[in-house]
Design goal:
With 80 residues, this protein is of the alpha+beta class. The strands form two sheets. The protein has a three-stranded antiparallel beta sheet, covered by helices on one side. The protein has helices spanning 38-44, 64-79; strands spanning 3-8, 19-23, 29-32, 34-35, 57-58. The mean pLDDT is 90. The chain is 29% helix and 24% strand.
Length: 80
């Protein structure tokens, strides 16, 4: 797997912060974020169940520019 580092939350420490990568081979986005609290998870489950192998995570709004870059890079990877 070839993960391309896009960036991490500029307002948190470098040990435990939301981070974005793109899988350069398939173009998938790989996200590290804060595990959602029970209330958020419950609200998300109103639209469907949450299997044991999935998770609801939060990415702060200040990371939108990084997500845009990740989406652009992922799209380019998919076109190769």
């Amino acid at each position: 797997m070839d993960l391309q580092f896009i960036g991490m939350d500029p307002e948190t420490d470098t040990d435990h912060c939301p981070t974005v990568w793109v899988d350069a081979e398939g173009g998938d986005l790989v996200l590290q974020g804060w595990k959602a609290d029970d209330a958020t998870e419950s609200k998300c489950q109103e639209t469907g169940s949450l299997p044991d192998y999935e998770a609801v995570i939060r990415i702060p709004a200040r990371m939108v520019p990084l997500l845009r870059k990740a989406c652009d890079d992922a799209e380019r990877s998919a076109l190769r």
